[in-house]
Amino acid sequence: MAGRTNSTKNDIVDLAIRMITENGYQSISLRKLLGRLHLTTGSFYKHFASKEALFEAASIRISQRFTEQAAKAIGHSPDAMTRLIDLGEFVVQKIASQPFLTDFLFFNPSTASIYSSTDQAPHFELLNLTHQVIDSLSESPENTNSEGDLFIKLWSFIQGYGLLIRNGAVTYNRQFLKSVAYQLIGIPTN
What we know:
The structure is a single chain. The protein has ten helices and no strands. The protein has helices at residues 2-23, 30-37, 41-47, 51-74, 80-97, 99-107, 109-116, 125-138, 147-166, 174-185. Pfam families: TetR_N. This is TetR/AcrR family transcriptional regulator.
């Protein structure tokens, strides 16, 4: 029975992610989701306390998937700055190619608790990877920012740049990404 229970929970999360990918998280209706799985609301509440709990589980799963992909993208980078640029490029490309999924991952209300909770942070692997990359840069002698301030500056820029690209306002330029990252860290570019 435990196997079926775990399968049902995974099925709910997987379908929620598919529905988010197709139409955005704002359009998720538990009734529609459960109808597609032929489940009752009782079955849902056996696995999740609320829709927010489902969204939290989906966020963690998406973060794990993105982290696996991002790790491959930055895995062979020779130094911390190149890892940051490669990670930024990965995030920008995800924002442009999977807008509903990235909006959900970065901006849905259930992730606010994950971003600020030390209990949940270990489960949010993309956030952890980003902090690791930025932390290695915060040790640069040119950097005068705390790791927290540097994270906010870089993460805000990467997300904002990704949104501009997604909306067609600008086209992606790796050199621009690199130049701005250097400026935000305080490293002179020649």
